[in-house]
Amino acid sequence: MNVAASVERANKTRSPYARLFAIPGTKAFCISGAVARLPISMMALGIVLALNHLYDNWTVAGSMSAAYILAVAAVTPLYARLFDRLGQRRVGRVALGVQVVAMLAFAFAALSRVPIPLLFALAIVMGFTQFSFGALVRTRWAYALRSHAGDDPRLLNTAYALEAAIDEIVFIVGPILAAFLATSVHPVSQLFVPTLACGIGGAVFFSLRSSAPVVERVEVDAGGAAVSDSGSAVSDSGANGGRADSFSLLGGVRGGARGGSRRASRSVLLMPGIAPILVVFIVFNMSFTAFDVSTTATMKAAGVEQWLGLQLAMFAVGSCVGAMIFGSRELKGSHWRHMVVFLTLLAIGFALFRLAMDNFLLLGALEIVAGLCVSPLFATGSLIVKSLVPARSLTEGLSWLTTAGSIGTSFGSTFAGAVLDAAGPHASMMIPWIAVACAVPLAVLGWALSRSRGTGGGRDGGRDGRS
Known about the structure:
CATH topology of the largest domain: Growth Hormone, Chain: A
CATH architecture of the largest domain: Up-down Bundle
Distance between the termini: 28 Å
CATH class of the largest domain: Mainly Alpha
Largest sheet: 4 strands, antiparallel
Order of helices and strands: HHHHHHHHHHEEEEHHHHHHHHHH
Number of strands: 4
CATH superfamily of the largest domain: MFS general substrate transporter like domains
């Protein structure tokens, strides 16, 4: 009764954020998930800072960072599938322990200056142990809203915008902390701090049982009826004979149980509408690490490397503000249309960065303004995926989005490192705006496909798209 009364009172307030945190357990998983995400803003940059200091080679530093990111991208969907099928706590406790050990091994190896091939191998192994805390937290939000708020699509929009804002806060704190540790404490010290944050935040996150999505075991009988553990029929549709098991995240089966376990195990990649959003994320995410690496080289050449973290954080400050604005308003029309608009504005911003890159104060101001589009881009991508995949595969769908972004950022750091060594930072700073500009027509194509197929993405995509 007290919980219901608390939620009802919060619903009467104007702030959607108050409504979110009135739901039991949301504060705990939101905060612990934020702490556990610190490595996403520190490890790749930390590798670049450490390797460039140790070996004075941007190509090696950028390539090792890219190898780590690609390894992360390769396994993130696999972990997500396990989380969806077996449960967050059951998989997470083991995966987290392995992850912390691998991160410590890489950090100590870098500290000991082991040979480059061995360090490359350890970076790849470390990447193979990483999974997306952001996707896990977003899945918990969807489960919490479904359980306590009637799956309100407006609140989900706010929750995903909040998570995008938290990502940006992490990207504000992370680069500043990494640059400070690398320049003021020790060139490798910035590799140990995210390991500690991941271990503590992750342990707390996976200990929270009440907010963890329920994995309901569903059996498909010979007649095709999906029967839960309690014996009640979930859905009834014609299926082939035999008996198979399937699993459903968030309690229940969406769209029936036709096809039994074969359908339940269908990869998110094969679902209509997923490929276009993943391609867009691969292309435009090249811009961020290219910008980071180019700015790092520019400030190092100017002798102001100690201010690098603050400079990079200005972009994240703008993105954080953009997330809070986006989450407090309900934009009309298609999510794909929003994607096209945000990408266009970001491309213009990166082009201005290239012109202002030697004036760090002006560059910082432009970063704040252009950053207003970044979090809304990621939140919009999550909303598109949410409208395309069934609830039982939501973590996998969101993780594929993370994977696409990781592939893009690895390409960005690789290209930027090579261009830096060949032509300098002024040339490498061209990569960000070109990458985002190339993503615009791809987003337009994705928008057109969603309208023709009716596969989500907003009102003109065949569905409301705000689920």
